[in-house]
Automatic annotation (TrEMBL):
The gene is coaE. GO terms for biological process: coenzyme A biosynthetic process. This is Dephospho-CoA kinase. GO terms for molecular function: ATP binding; dephospho-CoA kinase activity. Belongs to the CoaE family. It catalyses: 3'-dephospho-CoA + ATP = ADP + CoA + H(+). It comes from the Bacteria. It is found in: Cytoplasm. Transmembrane segments: none annotated. Its EC number is 2.7.1.24. It comes from Porphyromonas somerae.
């Protein structure tokens, strides 16, 4: 979806890639991560040791919530600065791509929420193909995501991502509504 938006000239803030970068570049987040997990969480190069963090989270599942409580505010700060930069450039429309948009409270920083929906079987197949992960790993990840029904209820706009509903015409129709 991000690619389709960018092809239409819509800047997209990708929370996953920005969060990964912020672990290394946001000093406030870095200091909080060290306070939470210890200095060994960062490699000698100064970048987050993702394997070390993963092993800590695997050993203590409650740690994931604590890490998210640190990274989500950093992402919000970064997004606000990014969006302000776009506004200064005269951009009227941008997108915030996040699997955890509603869970992380990022919807408070948007004018509307667009949910991309597909049935669970199709989502499972696509994620396995995209990530090269096992069915069990993808199902475990999906269990931590908001159910599609709840997502549809909480969203302002819906797009269906399956063979019966091609994405481009749905996206173009949405833009026609938004830009009127």
């Amino acid at each position: 979806m991000a690619r389709l938006l960018e092809e239409r000239g819509i800047p997209v803030y990708d929370t996953d890639s920005r969060a990964k970068a912020l672990y290394d570049t946001d000093e406030e987040l870095r200091e909080a991560m060290i306070a939470l997990c210890g200095a060994g969480i960062y490699a000698p190069s100064g970048s987050l040791d993702r394997k070390a963090l993963a092993s800590l989270i695997f050993a203590d599942r409650s740690l994931l919530g604590q890490v998210n409580a640190l990274v989500h505010p950093a992402v919000r700060r970064d997004f606000v600065a990014w969006r302000e930069g776009l506004s200064t450039e005269g951009k009227r429309l941008c997108a915030l791509e996040s699997a955890l948009l509603l869970d992380a409270g990022l919807d408070a920083y948007t004018d509307g929420v667009l949910a991309i929906l597909a049935d669970d079987t199709l989502r499972l197949q696509r994620a396995m193909a995209r990530d090269g992960a096992s069915e069990e790993a993808i199902r475990a990840r999906m269990q931590h995501q908001m159910p599609q029904e709840e997502l549809a209820q909480r969203a302002d706009f819906l797009i269906y991502n399956d063979e019966a509903h091609p994405l481009p015409p749905q996206l173009d129709s949405l833009f026609d509504k938004l830009l009127d």
